[in-house]
Specification:
Radius of gyration: 33 Å
Distance between the termini: 82 Å
Number of helices: 7
Shape: rod-shaped
Mean pLDDT: 88
Helix content: over 70%
Strand content: under 5%
Structural class: mainly alpha
């Protein structure tokens, strides 16, 4: 859902630079690229002609994802004679915040997978060390101890 909302934000950022863009056009573009939210956005586009505010309010009620609700609220503000650029003026900073958040989560994921890779990379060396050095020494020590015990037992 987060990826799709980021995609919507990118589409809106591109469309808001066009002078004659309106809310209905933005909704149509969002519908084209929708996967998860396809059904509610399609319903909103179909109901848009009967009342823009009501259609957007119904979309807001159908969707539970908070970032998409924020976008819908900005679309509602743009319906009320506020220019689209002003309705989405916080979109740039919000998008940067989510990009930084995603970058940090990707770095954590990469470091975790790097640690797993290091463990898997050192496993053959540890098996080799244990198998060729420690196990033979323990076997030799146990056999020599058992022969020593046997010779001591024979002396008595």
């Amino acid at each position: 859902m987060e990826d799709e909302v980021m995609q919507y934000q990118t589409i809106i950022l591109m469309l808001m630079k066009i002078e004659r863009v309106n809310v209905e056009m933005i909704l149509e573009w969002l519908e084209r690229y929708a996967n998860i939210f396809k059904e509610p956005i399609t319903k909103c586009v179909n109901n848009y002609e009967s009342g823009a505010w009501e259609a957007l309010e119904e979309l807001k009620n159908d969707v539970t994802y908070p970032q998409l609700i924020t976008i819908v609220e900005s679309l509602q503000a743009a319906v009320e004679k506020i220019p689209i650029r002003e309705a989405f003026d916080e979109l740039d900073t919000e998008r940067e915040y989510y990009q930084e958040k995603r970058k940090a989560s990707n770095e954590r994921l990469i470091s975790r997978k790097g640690m797993i890779g290091k463990v898997i990379g050192f496993a053959p060396m540890i098996v080799l060390f244990v198998g060729y050095l420690i196990v033979p020494l323990v076997v030799i020590g146990l056999t020599s101890m058992s022969t020593s015990l046997n010779t001591m037992g024979n002396m008595m």
